[in-house]
């Protein structure tokens, strides 16, 4: 059994994932639907675990918090005689405060990063080594959460159109071999390739290997992933470093 563990340093924590979900679902940060946000969050965490990504414990702590919040939201309304219950603060309010504080911090950090980039244009220096940051200009920045979301949708579509099982066992792939095959496919392409078209198998292990290969190529700045708008499809092109002569 092939094992391949990856630690994704660009995960900024569970609050970053929650903000991503709030944006995707167009949710009011002051009125978070506990059931929906919990289900979506758990789907992402489950996908990370299936891919054997190194999920930090803080993601699991937040998952437990959201599950408790969801359970509370599903309970019937209590009468005023249960004062202790009614006096408890709605956990969604505390979560909203944390999200707003994190959002302000993140926006400030992004502003400082923009100022740093402007200053870098004056004094030449080598580019910063940043995971998953494309060196090509595009309409939207594609985050690791966008990639996980695309992988979720792709695997669901695969399950809806599963072909008959082949009787011949296919050769087991490695991440390194898949990376090489993907680079060759992208370099020979005349135009950007749809993310889903990089996955020509219906076998779970091969889908996982291909996805890990895509992540590793992004980490090495060998490919560029672009998106033209929220909820739009992802497209992949060869780009960045070219170590092969």
Automatic annotation (TrEMBL):
Keyword check for Cytoplasm: yes
Subcellular location(s) per record: Cytoplasm
InterPro entries in UniProt: ScpA, ScpA-like_C
Family: Belongs to the ScpA family.
NCBIfam families given in the database record: PRK00104.1-4 (NF000995)
Functional description taken from the UniProt entry: Participates in chromosomal partition during cell division. May act via the formation of a condensin-like complex containing Smc and ScpB that pull DNA away from mid-cell into both cell halves.
PANTHER family given in the database record: SEGREGATION AND CONDENSATION PROTEIN A
Protein's recorded name: Segregation and condensation protein A
Organism: Domibacillus enclensis
Source species taxonomy: Bacteria, Bacillati, Bacillota, Bacilli, Bacillales
Gene name of the record: scpA
